[in-house]
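Hi L.,

You mentioned the student needs an example of a multi-chain input paired with its predicted structure. This one should do, with 228 residues in total across all chains.
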Amino acid sequence: DTVLTQSPALAVSPGERVTISCRASESVSTGMHWYQQKPGQQPKLLIYGASNLESGVPARFSGSGSGTDFTLTIDPVEADDTATYFCQQSWNDPYTFGAGTKLELK
Amino acid sequence: QVTLKESGPGILQPSQTLSLTCTFSGFSLSTYGMGVGWIRQPSGKGLEWLANIWWDDDKYYNPSLKNRLTISKDTSNNQAFLKITNVDTADTATYYCARIGYNSGSYWFAYWGQGTLVTVSS
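Structure written out for the whole complex:
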């Protein structure tokens, strides 16, 4: 299975720029997607196909990368962005998710 | 407006069969290209993809659980189903269904239900 590695946690101040990384154990081309999950809620799609912003998601969110290294950027970060962010790949079977990066605001 | 809602037994005993239902609106699983997936999440942990079913009744399973999973659909009632046989405590999780989005061979979970908590306990 393709293993997706994410940093466990980040802490940033409102207004700053934050990058959340996801590294795949093998190439996933651009088959990488990002989700936001707030406590007690279901995940919400933010970015699909590595860099495509889902409709209705603020333009503060952006995604980049291909192959094995991917980044989700939030610029500027707002207080409401406190959440856990998961990457997911669909290029290789089976689909797999990263363990999530918990974003906290200072 | 796309909505999905999962339902399940809440609690069941080890070795039993878990039956989950996903009732959705805003799309039809008989429409070309539509698909629904099931994903689960143990409390405080990460996400695990379980299975997908497509408009043409194609089915895909996570190989780690394939022998225990059965996915199906009822297009006339806008429902998808997942059965997991021989459950044990490791199957305790919140189970989500989601509508699949896709493009150029890439697939993602575009819309999610609120999830249903399933606890396996004797």
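You could point out the following to them. Chain A has no helices and eleven strands. Chain A has a mean pLDDT of 97.

Best wishes,
N.
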